[in-house]
Write a structure and sequence with these properties.
heterodimer; A: 279 residues; mainly alpha; B: 130 residues; 2 strands; 79% helix; 3% strand
Chain lengths: 279, 130
C-alpha cells in the first residue's frame, strides 16, 4: 500500500511543483505585501509637490506671488493622476500577495475612464499605456479566477508594464519633486539672503534670527530630499524584485525565492522607514 | 507637430531651473555693484524662469512642437549658451537682456512655436557677447 502511494505521490508532487505548488511562496507574498506598504507612502510626497511650490510662493516678491501660485495650481492638477497610477500599482501588489497566499484576485474597478484620469498626470503616452495595461491584466486575472498556479503567468504578462510604471513614479518623485524642492530652497535663499544683504549691518541681532530661519528651512528641505531618494529606491527595488521573479518564473524554488527576494524586502523596509521619518 | 515625452519636458524644466539659479547667483555675487532697480529686475526674471521650470514639469504631456527633436536640440544649445554667458559676463544690462530673452523663449515653447523665439534669443545672446 505504501509503495503504491509513493507511485502516486511522487509524480503528483513533481507535477504540482511544475505548477509552483510545492514551492513556498511566502517570500513572494511578503515581497508583495512590503512593496504595497512601501508604495502607499506616495500620497504624502505627491501632496508636497504643490505644497513646496506654495511655500516657495510665500518667499516670492509681492509682484510674483500670484504668478507663482498659478504655477502651483498647475502642479496640483497632476496629483490625482499620479495617485491613480500608484493605486494601480498597489492593486497589482495586493493581487500578487493574494495569489501567493492561495487566495483569488478581486478587482472590480472600471477601466474605461483610466486614460482620462491620467491625462493631467504628467505621464506620457507610453507610460499611460503601461498603467492601463497593468490594470487590464489585473482585471483579467480577477475575471478568469486566477489562482496560485497562475501567479507566474501574471508576473510574466505584467513585468513590462510594471517596469514602466515604477520607473515613471520614481522619476516623478526623484526628479520632478526634488526639482521643486530645489526651487523652494532657491526661493528661501533669495528671500533670506536679500534680507541679510539689506539689513545685516544695521540689525545684527535680527540677522542672527534670519540665518537661523534659513538654516531651519534648508534642513527641512534636505530631509524631504532624502525621503524622495528613499521613495525612488523603493520603486527601483520593486522593479528589481519583480524582474527577478519574472526571470525565474518557470523555475521557482523556495531557496531561490529566499535568495532573490529576501534582501529586497529588507531594503524596502529601510527605505520606507526613511520616507516615514520625513513625513 | 509632435507631443513631448515626459523626459523631454523634464529636460526643459531642468534647463530653465538652471538658468534661474544662474541669474540668482549673478544677483548675489554682484549685489553691491547693482542698483536697487537692477536687483529687482534680476529677481523678477529669476522668478519668471523658476515658474516656467515648474510649468514645464506640470504640462509635460500637453506640449507640442514642430520638428520636435531638432527644436529641442536647438533649445538646449541656446539655454546652455545663455547660462554660460550669465556666469561669465560682467555687464548687468547684458545679463538682464539674456535673462529676458530666456523668458521669451520659455513663453514661446509653451505656445508650441519656438523656432522664431530661438532665433530671437540667439540674436540677443550674440549681441550680448559681442
Amino acid at each position: 500500500m505504501r509503495s503504491a502511494l509513493k507511485y502516486i505521490a511522487v509524480p503528483l508532487c513533481v507535477f504540482t511543483a511544475l505548477l509552483g505548488g510545492c514551492v513556498d511562496l511566502g517570500e513572494v507574498r511578503e515581497f508583495a505585501g512590503v512593496s504595497k506598504s512601501a508604495s502607499s507612502l506616495l500620497p504624502a510626497l505627491v501632496a508636497d509637490i504643490h505644497a513646496t511650490c506654495e511655500r516657495r510662493a510665500a518667499y516670492a516678491p509681492i509682484g510674483k506671488q500670484a504668478e507663482t501660485l498659478e504655477t502651483c495650481k498647475k502642479l496640483a492638477a497632476s496629483e490625482p493622476g499620479i495617485l491613480k497610477t500608484q493605486e494601480v500599482l498597489l492593486d497589482y501588489m495586493a493581487a500578487l500577495k493574494s495569489l501567493a497566499g492561495h487566495q483569488q484576485v478581486s478587482y472590480g474597478k472600471k477601466l474605461e475612464s483610466l486614460p482620462d484620469d491620467l491625462s493631467e498626470s504628467g505621464l506620457d503616452t507610453k507610460q499611460v499605456s503601461a498603467v492601463t495595461g497593468l490594470a487590464k491584466k489585473l482585471a483579467d486575472a480577477a475575471l478568469n479566477g486566477y489562482r496560485r498556479k497562475e501567479l507566474s503567468n501574471l508576473i510574466g504578462s505584467a513585468n513590462d508594464d510594471l517596469q514602466v510604471v515604477t520607473g515613471a513614479l520614481g522619476t516623478i518623485i526623484v526628479t520632478d519633486y526634488k526639482r521643486e524642492l530645489s526651487q523652494e530652497r532657491e526661493g528661501a535663499q533669495e528671500y533670506f539672503r536679500s534680507a541679510l544683504k539689506t539689513y545685516e549691518l544695521s540689525e545684527p541681532l535680527a540677522a542672527i534670527a534670519v540665518r537661523r530661519d534659513l538654516q531651519s528651512d534648508e534642513a527641512t528641505i534636505a530631509t524631504k530630499e532624502q525621503a524622495a531618494d528613499a521613495y525612488g529606491k523603493i520603486m527601483k527595488d520593486i522593479a528589481v524584485g519583480h524582474q527577478k521573479l519574472y526571470d525565474s518564473r518557470n523555475k521557482w524554488t523556495t531557496e531561490s525565492l529566499l535568495k532573490d527576494v529576501a534582501p529586497i524586502i529588507e531594503d524596502l523596509d529601510d527605505s520606507a522607514q526613511k520616507v516615514k521619518e520625513a513625513f | 507637430m509632435s507631443k513631448l515625452t515626459a523626459d523631454q519636458a523634464r529636460d526643459l524644466a531642468n534647463q530653465f531651473h538652471d538658468l534661474s539659479v544662474a541669474v540668482g547667483n549673478y544677483r548675489f555675487d554682484n549685489w553691491d555693484a547693482l542698483t536697487s532697480a537692477k536687483r529687482d529686475r534680476l529677481e523678477d526674471l529669476q522668478w519668471t524662469l523658476m515658474n516656467y521650470s515648474s510649468d514645464f514639469t506640470s504640462q509635460a504631456i500637453s506640449l507640442t512642437l514642430s520638428d520636435l527633436a531638432e527644436t529641442l536640440d536647438h533649445i538646449q544649445r541656446t539655454t546652455k549658451k545663455a547660462k554660460q554667458v550669465i556666469q561669465t559676463i560682467k555687464t548687468v544690462d547684458k545679463v538682464i537682456r539674456i535673462a529676458a530673452a530666456a523668458t521669451v523663449l520659455a513663453a514661446a515653447i509653451m505656445t508650441g512655436n519656438a523656432e522664431a523665439a530661438i532665433k530671437a534669443a540667439e540674436d540677443t545672446y550674440e549681441q550680448a557677447t559681442n
